[in-house]
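Researcher: Going back to the complex we discussed earlier. I've cleaned up the inputs and rechecked each line, so this should be the final set. Can you rerun the prediction on the complete assembly and write out the structure?
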Amino acid sequence: MVKDIFTFFSRIMKGDRVALGQAMTLVESERYSDRVEAIQLLELCHQHLPARDKSIRMAISGAPGVGKSTLIEALGLKAIAQGHKVGVITIDPTSSVSHGSILGDKLRMPGLSVSPDAFVRSSAAGSVLGGIGRRSFELMTLLEAVGYDIILLETVGVGQSEHIAWQLTDGFVLVLQPGGGDELQGIKRGITELADIVIINKADGSLRDSAAISKSHYQNAIHYLAPLRNNWDPKILMCSALKNEGIDEFWDVLRLYMDTRWYANQKEIERNRQNHFWISWSIGITANQLLVNHPVVQQKLRERLSGNENRSIPIFKAEYEIEEVMKELIVPSTTNNI
Amino acid sequence: MVKDIFTFFSRIMKGDRVALGQAMTLVESERYSDRVEAIQLLELCHQHLPARDKSIRMAISGAPGVGKSTLIEALGLKAIAQGHKVGVITIDPTSSVSHGSILGDKLRMPGLSVSPDAFVRSSAAGSVLGGIGRRSFELMTLLEAVGYDIILLETVGVGQSEHIAWQLTDGFVLVLQPGGGDELQGIKRGITELADIVIINKADGSLRDSAAISKSHYQNAIHYLAPLRNNWDPKILMCSALKNEGIDEFWDVLRLYMDTRWYANQKEIERNRQNHFWISWSIGITANQLLVNHPVVQQKLRERLSGNENRSIPIFKAEYEIEEVMKELIVPSTTNNI
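Model: Rerun complete. Updated structure for the full complex:
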């Protein structure tokens, strides 16, 4: 088994794309035997992460329909033309097969999906927690170990997923479409301030003026908020990913971001912080899955909270009973001081 | 036991303040026998929650030192003068006794702490999770059942606590102090957009001009963000809580907020939403405490993550081992399909 993993790892490192895809499927699998092998593989990759400063993991966030895929395609192709290798982790909302829709990728990112210098992975629909994949962090490790140095993690903008994505990446790109008049459409409150780079997409044709207004609105809004990072002020750009306009500027800003972000030994410090956050987050999800999503607990939740959603539901009694059910699921031990 | 709870409940409902304090201590207790009685009491209170529309639970958030206590004191006394009863749940950072510092309350809110129409409770230091008390939701239920109709929940502004507080209350007040020049001091990104009412406090004397500038900056910033609620635009006010200036306006805005918020049957719908969020949040905390905070798991975490915080820590192996430890803590069952 161990010998197989080393062989598997060698194949991946040598550039075997089929093996890389299989490795990702392995990492996303919930089967116990797969987990054991996946961890061995991930540790090998983790040890082989290159120390180069010219690699970065960027979250690409935005509401559905703003053009994230088109933007990723345009930026990715630009990065490849500059000599980089681009890894993309996306969530394909139309996907129903276990590892995303290959056809969907070809339609949404036709250039990247056939480039030997890019690797596009749609996260398995079942492994997505809200807007971020359960194993996205692990997938980024795989990609970076193999040599992909521009890694783009697409998030869908659901719930708290952007905050998680922000914690697990080196930088955050918010993609928006032009708003109408004073009110900026599609802005999800709570994530504007996470952005290191804001892209007003679809800034072409009849929407160009609207995009310029949106850009200046955002510049105002962001100007009055305290900066998130010590040495970087958020940049706001207008692009038309479809027409490949503004993409050179986007690339220049991204390179500037990398240079600024990775001064001294910041990358090591930053990746350590992300590692620690990831462990806490990941084991927290497992704790919830083991307990809250336990069939016994879910059954109790359904019994207690189903039907009429009115104030006569004894919420405190329900919560207490669910706590008791969860406690009963924990093995008592001599060191158990709960 | 049951008969005692009914008697206890009657005393509380009749206005026995000592009994109310004891009830809060009971609710915040983690002892098993106390939990059973606390749940019975909370259910009685829950059934007796008045249906009146003129009651509201407001989160009062802001960085330490902006003057939240002074503002709560000023607003509270105004509300009492208008015929209301005010309940305050605070976190006393200097507190070390099990239910907060009575002396601290008397110093920080001298008027409210002696008013028969107010009840001030400092949450026990040990029960605070970041910036919000573990049992704050339960304490608000107690206060409202007894007849306190303006309930102010102070949060400290740590981590994600404001987002939790936002979910568990009817409205959100953000308290700031005037900033210097262009940059607004003390603004914590990520919560600006949660605010229904923004108070620029300490807007007196030499800080008055600065406060006016801050107010206009915030008006600009918030103007460009999508509104959080359907029928309410955030209001920004300047106050000097110490000099009791701007407090009448604050009260008027709060009353307007109540009228606007509770149109039709919105209160019932809103409180149901809060109830459901609360149950998910509360059982999630319990799940984490039962598993992640289990001594066995904590020991494993310390072993694996201690010492040198550098990239040679096998994070994936560590996470996997901790998962395995947690799984071993779960009783296997025939219905267990994990």
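Model: Worth noting: Chain A has a mean pLDDT of 85.
Researcher: Good, that matches what I expected from the previous run.
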